[in-house]
Write the structure tokens for this entry.
Amino acid sequence: MGTATLEPTSIKKGFKSEEYFINMGPQHPATHGVLRLLLTIDGEIIKKVDPDLGYIHRSIEKMCESNSYQQIVHLTDRLDYLSSHINNEAVCLCVENALELEVPERVKVIRTILGELTRIASHTLWWGVMGMDVGAFSSYFYGFRDREMINDIFEETCGARLTMNYNIPGGLMQDIHPNFVKRVKEFIPHFRSKLPEYDRLLTGNIIFQKRTKGVGVLSKEDAINFGASGPVARASGYSCDVRKYHPYSALDKINFTEALDTTGDSFARYKVRIAEMWESLAIIEQLIDNIPEGDHKVATNAVIKLPKGEFYQKVETARGEFGVYIISTGTKNPYRVKFRSPGLSNLSLLNHIAVGGKIGDLVATMATIDIVVPDIDR
Amino acid sequence: MNSISNMIDWFVSTGVLNMAMIALIYLTVFAVLGLFLVLLERKVAAWFQLRIGPNRVGYLGLFQTIADALKLVSKELTGTVKADKFLYNLAPYFVIVTSLMALAVFPFTRDLQAFDINIGVFFLVAISSIGVIGILLGGWSSNNKFALIGAMRSGVQTISYELSVGISLLTMVILTGSLQLSEIIEVQKSGWLIVQGHIPAIIAFMIYMIAGTAETNRAPFDMVEAESELGAGYHTEYSGMKFAYFFLAEFINMFIIAALATTVFFGGWLSPFGITDSLPWMGLFWFLAKTFVLVFLMMWFRWTFPRLRVDQLLTLEWKYLLPINLVNLVLMAVIVWLNLTIQI
């Protein structure tokens, strides 16, 4: 990313067409937050995209060094706020592994269900915003209608709709609400009937397909080289689902197929996310009927001290592989915490795949990369 | 005293006073119409999007846009320091004046027409191409790159789609043999033109609606504004009343496109099958009813379709609409020549 260059990279001499420089963001409707893109444009054609980060940097990793392990969980909500439950889970799993703590089966199942609900909620929001980015406003409200049901479930279960804080090292903060199973069971058929509506509104639309097919093509090699993960990498044919290869919580007992595509363009990324919503529904359906009885947490010390060493845990958020790396010196605070966020490595692709396209293509590509800016800046 | 009464006499006798009063009524009526079209759009959008829409100001939110307009009038006019002041201030008037001028030639009912000029259709096409100058000026003089991109897109788009609007109207003019709007309606007493001209007329209507939507810079052809790409496009740097002129003009243009389609394809103020021929004032009702159905159609487009990309927009016009249109023109000429029209 480097420092921002305020001059266009190259200006042709004479009266020929000139490349010019334009600031897209930090306040721009398509950048979904305070991301600044320095564009070099020739007419409508993009010559260079230079993302300039740091507008929402809160030094969360540094803050972690002076907080206890229970407190770190709460900070991870503020990374990728659309996958907050999964982020929390990653820290908890990392701490539990370090303590060699075995959490009850009930906790594992509930964590997985909530994780998949989070994924659906994130993808429905992405779908709505994707429509809005390519100019179809109505999809936004249809996406939010279904996300609202999930948020209501979250609200009832843990009292929050966005920043959940439901996981704690050792289990869950409290047991699930008595209505939880009923409401999730209501949601599944509702969403199964609404997902085809998504296809009718956007997927099958000829203009939408023209806007996304063959736009922002990412090859499998590049996906691996740039460290892409999640739907962005899977749309290029790189099978990298952490849930499949390094299952955590209750995912090792689940049958599901990893959504894959080979074309690697924006439309493939779109289709992979739609397929993931179907898969998440299947995962929830397998688990919701047999949540084991038992405690919702195991007791831990009030002050958690991890043994000396280095610990890593990765999970699959809605955006890709999220990793938590903790170096402990045996005290109540970590010596160093590093978050591997999917957004940053996915964003680094942007210059590679958006160059040569039009401004409209850049917007469509950015929408399918599905960036959440606080996740990139941390 | 005598000189003043003389002057009044002169005004009345030459019709200047009449003209001024008609102009004033026209401006008032259409400013209010524009406001209510904005409200209609917001309501229609809400129905498409599982929302209720404005419902707080007045009964069912009827005065919402009046309140918005009052807010815009009372707002401070901000602008950029580096803008080209003269052109920057001039641009909104180009847009709003041409929109309101175009309304002068429409026959709302048999006797309600301000100017019945014999080149009515030509006048409308000519006037609508002046409006784009305002958009170009606005984008250019704002000294903002996003506005400039929007203005350039607008120039390219409007010049391209004007061809389609013009030729599809020309197709219908072959059938009527007149450019005068009142004459065109007279011809339709033996069947609306979309029935008389059957296949080529339906093709011409479809092309006209597509090109007309593009001409008014509305989604799916709203390249000029393209929120997610350019922020607000050509009117990024405008505020207050100057912004309101651009905004109102967009809605009045939509009404013009729909009203012209009503006049040329659907019999204008004529009632279907002559059911209300004995009540001349019902013509106004039929005219507005038909126009609002078409306005609704354009709103339907806007809230359903994604936006095209700028090169796809040009491909659509130059590779598909224009050739089809030219063939259609010939087809219509052949049909009129062989007398294959349907007369009721």
